[in-house]
Amino acid sequence: xxxxxxxxxxxxxxxxxxxxxxxxxxxxxxxxxxxxxxxxxxxxxxxxxxxxxxxxxxxxxxxxxxxxxxxxxxxxxxxxxxxxxxxxxxxxxxxxxxxxxxxxxxxxxxxxxxxxxxxxxxxxxxxxxxxxxxxxxxxxxxxxxxxxxxxxxxxxxxxxxxxxxxxxxxxxxxxxxxxxxxxxxxxxxxxxxxxxxxxxxxxxxxxxxxxxxxxxxxxxxxxxxxxxxxxxxxxxxxxxxxxxxxxxxxxxxxxxxxxxxxxxxxxxxxxxxxxxxxxxxxxxxxxxxxxxxxxxxxxxxxxxxxxxxxxxxxxxxxxxxxxxxxxxxxxxxxxxxxxxxxxxxxxxxxxxxxxxxxxxxxxxxxxxxxxxxxxx
Length: 376
Ligand code: SF4
Prior knowledge:
Bound molecules: iron/sulfur cluster
Radius of gyration: 29 Å
Number of strands: 8
Oligomer: single chain
Helix content: 40-55%
CATH topology of the largest domain: Lambda Exonuclease, Chain A
C-alpha cells in the first residue's frame, strides 16, 4: 500500500473521513484554518529559500503576506481582521527569532517515502517535511511548522507518530543520515516555541509496528464514522451518516414527530438520572441506619428492605485447569474475557497481533444509542 502520513492520521481520527477524502476523493473546500496554515508555510519557505541572493527584510516578508492574503475565506470582517493580525504577529515573531543566516538549511518542503515491510508486502508511507537543517556538529534537525492554537506537552511530542515517520522518511531519503543524530522538532508559531525530541532504534521499530497495524485496520475497515473533536470543521458532514440529516432538504419523516421523540427521550433520561442519584442516596441512608442499629432489615409502611452480605470468589486458574482438564471440562468453562484480551493483545508484537486478527469473526452487529445535550 502506498499511503501518506496524513491519510494514516485521518483514518485514525475517523475512518469515514478517510473514505470520503482518500478513497472516494470527494472534493472539499479547504477550511479557513488550512488556507491560513498554507499561506504561513509558503511565507516561511520563501523566507528561508537558500537560492535568494539577499535575505528578505521583515517589511518585504509582511508585504508578501498581505499581498497574498485572501479575505474571502472568512465569515465576517471581524474574524478576518483577527486572523490577519495573528498572521502578521506570527511572522514578525518568527522574523525576530530566526534570521536565515543563523541556519544551514539542507532542504525545504521536501517529500519523502518511508518503506515498511510486512512479510513479503512493501508499504510506502509518504509525506512532506517543512524544513531540514544541519547544525555545525553535523546533527540534522527536522522541523515541522504548526499554526494551531494548541501546543501539546513534551510527552506527546516524545510519542508523536508523525515525528517518528519523519525520521524514517529522512533516513530513507538520505541513508547517510542513518548513523547521524536526528533532532525532530515541532515549531509552534503562535507561541514562538519549538519542542524537540529524538527517536531510539527501538522506538522506530515500534513506529513501524504501529503503522502496520493501522494499515491492517484500513484493509479490513468498514469505514464507520468516529465522532471526534474535529467534527464541527469536517468538510464531509454532508456525506457523513452522523451529520447528513442536517443537509437533507426534503425530509421524508415528520420532523415535528422526530423533535417530540427526541424531547421525550431527554426528559425520560433526565428523570432516570435524578432517580438513580436519589436511589444511591437512599441506599446510603439505609446502610447507615442498619450499621448504627446493627440490623439488616428495616420496615416501612409500603414494605421492608433487606440487606444481605454478598461474597465473590475467584479461583486459581492453574489449579482449576489441573482438575478440570483431565475431565474434558476445561474448554467448556473457558471464555475469553474481552477487556483483558484487548489489553493483552495491545502488548503483543505486530506479527502475533496479525496472526490473531485472522481468527477474528463478527459475532453480532448492533447500534448503540447515546445521547448528547450539546447542539452541533
Ligand atoms: S463529521 Fe466527524 S464523524 Fe463524520 S466523517 Fe467527519 S470527522 Fe468523521
